Amino acid sequence: MKIHILGICGTFMGGLAALARSDGHEVSGSDENVYPPMSTQLEALGIALREGYEPDNIPADVDLVIIGNALSRGNPAVEHVLDNDIPFASGPRWLGETYLRRRTVLAVAGTHGKTTTASMLAWILEHAGMNPGFLIGGMPVDFGVSARTGEDLFVVEADEYDTAFFDKRAKFVHYRPRIAVLNNLEFDHADIYPDLAAIQTQFHHLVRTIPGNGRLVVNAADGNLKSVLDRGCWTPVSGFGLAEQGVGEWQVALEEPAGRRLAIQYAGQPVGTLEWPMTGRHNALNALAAIAAAEAAGVEPTKSIEALAKFGGVKRRLELVGERAGIHVYDDFAHHPTAIRLTLEGLRRAVGNARILVALEPASNTMRAGFHVADLPSALTAADFVWLRSSDGMDWDPLDVIEKSGGQGRARSRVDNLLEDLLAEARPGDHVIFMSNRGFENAPRRFFESLE
């Protein structure tokens, strides 16, 4: 089949293209911006890329056009597909109906931690010799690719964002997993969902698709997830949580403040101790969820602990860009106040009294619209100095957020000015972290290369 993908350079759609190519399809694609690293990966697979959404970029003899959820009516390529009655589908639907139905699916859902937990789970299965396939919304360091075909087991990052302009259900309802992780649930994606209840309905739809002989691995301390399960659940549930909270049959205890040594328990009995380079309570819970999901797939927990001790992390998840002039520079994807807080708290426990300098780009539609502005100051309290990138589309005052966070800070609209400030302020011993769910104009790398 000849497939053309609109929006191919996104992580999900690029991974989809790689899977389709490995399945024997002839694949091409177009995007508004074609750039590395995704363009390099796709071209290496023999996938032809075209820049822009002009109708001529779609092959005349195409059998199917897969349309990314970033495209909507009015886009010239979309209008061309509709006007000429060209067969089309969403990425999640194609993935679910023509690819995942032949495999045993392990899905990882939740507001936070999907990419990291899915990467951990895939790495555990790999370590156990199961050769899993996966499609992850990030780049696991241990694999070096965001997607691969594998054998029977397939790990998918199950996003609650909408499917396409013509299908407003969450992406994950198309995946039909046998094992599913529900990490946590908070309000997000205000451009799609009016309130938390609307997102809970989508999670309820996901729960409805999981068979009775499958397994749900659920954060036992999350009241919003409990409300989802209270609406109906037909699958055995394994709960997980922090030992200090005393909930869930799977529990984890931090044996040192940063979380680099974890004690894993099941049903009140010790399973083993994980020593690894990751930090924070959030990553402790991510690891526990991955261990529990892998156990449901037949992997002994001790084997999972062995695997996670060698886990290399995920790019842009508190990724250390490097150290120069005594200054540590990190690149991080966090864009929700909870994720920002947990990441900074974990870093604070790891670095002690060293200064933490944060450059935050509030780039998501939800953040820019101000839905989370009340929670931002407390999310930033672990930082000593905060730069917020302001923009015309923001409906709130960044200086007010900085003042309420209790630290020093500045608002800058231009990245060049922000980097000038940072270079003047940073000194040996500092930890500088850039936080954005977009490109931030390559600010982390530019800052690191400017250090003397």
Automatic annotation (TrEMBL):
One of its GO terms (biological process) is peptidoglycan biosynthetic process. Pathway: Cell wall biogenesis; peptidoglycan recycling. It catalyses: UDP-N-acetyl-alpha-D-muramate + L-alanyl-gamma-D-glutamyl-meso-2,6-diaminopimelate + ATP = UDP-N-acetyl-alpha-D-muramoyl-L-alanyl-gamma-D-glutamyl-meso-2,6-diaminopimelate + ADP + phosphate + H(+). It comes from the Bacteria. One of its GO terms (molecular function) is ATP binding. Keywords: ATP-binding, Cell cycle, Cell division, Cell shape, Cell wall biogenesis/degradation, Ligase, Magnesium, Nucleotide-binding, Peptidoglycan synthesis. Residues 316-437 form the Mur ligase C-terminal domain. The keyword Plastid does not apply. Gene3D superfamilies: Mur ligase, C-terminal domain, Mur-like, catalytic domain, NAD(P)-binding Rossmann-like Domain. Residues 2-99 form the Mur ligase N-terminal catalytic domain. ATP binds at G110, T111, H112, G113, K114, T115, T116. Residues 108-294 form the Mur ligase central domain. Its EC number is 6.3.2.45. Its cofactor is Mg(2+). Belongs to the MurCDEF family. Mpl subfamily. Reutilizes the intact tripeptide L-alanyl-gamma-D-glutamyl-meso-diaminopimelate by linking it to UDP-N-acetylmuramate. This is UDP-N-acetylmuramate--L-alanyl-gamma-D-glutamyl-meso-2,6-diaminoheptandioate ligase. It comes from Wenzhouxiangella sediminis. The lineage of its organism: Bacteria, Pseudomonadati, Pseudomonadota, Gammaproteobacteria, Chromatiales. The gene is mpl.
